[in-house]
Sequence to fold (62 residues):
Amino acid sequence: MLTYKKYNCSYCFQENFVQIELSYCSELVELIEDCTVCCNPNSITYNIEDNQVTMFEIEKTY
Fold:
C-alpha cells in the first residue's frame, strides 16, 4: 500500500511530499528526494511498523 508523507525542504523550507510504501514492515528505509521548489537534495529516513510510519527524519544532503 502506498501513502504520501508531507515534509518541509531542509534548504528552502517549502512543503513537499514523498511517496511511502507501507509494505516495508520493520525496515529502515533511506532515500534522497529533490525538492520540487529549489531542487536541492533531502535525505529522508523512515521506518514502517504495522503499516504505519513510526519514524520520519529529513536532513540536508551535502
